[in-house]
Amino acid sequence: MCQNCAAKAAATAPSRRSVARFLAAGAGLTALAACTPDAGTRPPSSSSPAATSASASQAATPSTTAPATSTAAGEPSAVATPTPTSAPTPASPAAGLPQQHSLTDPASPWLVVNKHRPLSPADYVPADRVQPNVALAVSGEAAQLNGTTAAAAEQMFAAAARDGVTMTLASGYRSYATQVATYNGYVASRGQAEADTASARPGFSEHQTGWAFDIGDGGGACSFQPCFADQPAAVWAKANGHRFGFVVRYPWMFHEITGYYYESWHLRFIGVEAATDMSAKGIATLEQYFGLEAAPGYL
User: Fold this and answer.
1) pLDDT of amino acid 223
2) Per-residue pLDDT tens for 59-102?
């Protein structure tokens, strides 16, 4: 349990985000702890799903033609979405790096997925999913990453261990079908408006790309709770992740840009060069680094 979470939430609202436990059917995900604030004050969550097996059974068949939103009943439906910029803007901080990458290709380490920028195709599956050789708190698809991210994670976890910090992989890859079940579970229990503050819509989740994952510590302390930010694993990752190509994707007090409140556990691989450049320049979000518009809500 998270100690004194209520006090911490009151002291930092609307800050660090807490999320509900989840169990997505067939996904091999373990239940994750949460300190849940009152409805109406709960910060958004993009990382920790909350679907029961009952809600999973109501999930819609994934669309393969367009990103999904949801109807009032919680069933995803295809909608037209704008075509995002395919490369960093010329004036962006990233434009000076010698090697440039696509911002829209799901196989690119610079891919930017947010509430304005869905995956294309919506049901994208990384071709090179592997299970990294790291301490795992999950199994099945949730223990997988794409090959590049997995190799970098192995190096980072080993470096943390040498510094006396235990780090676990708490949630990795999440398929489109799993995200459908997860999102529909939120809609069924809370309504769509609140679901959009707690779970990414299908086709809008970084976890589906294989480039992102959530970390925990060896004992599971404060997992997916605001107090995780003070745990050694989170402190170490924030200070050292860039050395291995990782950034904290949803940083403190930048929810009006990213669309999500602080997730000290959610790491995103963008490559050592870009992550180090972001750190050196003091840039907090991918949106700012790549010269993209803020995405606080769905279009």
Assistant:
1) 95
2) 333 333 333 433 333 334 333 344 455 889 889 999 999 999 99
Between the alpha carbon of residue 7 and those of residues 223, 227, 253, the distances in Å are 17, 11, 19
**What span, in angstroms and rounded, lies between the C-alpha atoms of 31 and 29?**
7
The DSSP line for 226-262 is: GGGGGSHHHHHHHHHGGGGTEEESS-TT-HHHHSS--
Per-residue DSSP letters for 275-290?
HHHHHHHT---HHHHT
Contact status, residue 13 vs residue 42, Cβ threshold 8 Å: no
Burial (CB < 10 A; 0-12, 13-18, 19+), residue 219, is: exposed
Tell me the CA distances in angstroms from 81 to 49, 101, 137, 264, 291, one per residue in order: 24, 22, 36, 30, 20
Tell me the pTM: 0.76
Residues 277, 286 contacting (CB under 8 angstroms): no
What is the per-residue pLDDT across 215-274, written as a single tens digit (0 to 9) for each? 999 888 999 999 999 999 999 999 999 999 999 999 999 999 999 989 999 999 999 999
DSSP of 183-219, one letter per residue?
HHHHHHHH-HHHHTTTSPPTT--GGGGTSEEEEE-TT
Question: What pLDDT is recorded for position 47?
Answer: 52
Where is 146: in which H helix or E strand? strand 145-146
Residue keyed to tokens 């029961």: 52
Q: What would the two tokens of residue 35 be?
A: 């300190």
What is the total residue count of the chain? 299
pLDDT in the model for residue 113: 98
Question: Do residues 255 and 43 touch, judged by C-beta distance below 8 A?
Answer: yes
Query: What are the phi and psi torsion angles at 247 (to 5°)?
Result: -130, 155
Round to whole Å and give the CA distance between 262 and 203: 21
23-32, 122-131, 205-214: range with lowest mean pLDDT: 23-32
Rounded distance between C-alpha atoms, residue 256 and residue 208, angstroms = 23
Cα angle for residues 171, 175, 177 (degrees, 5° grid): 125
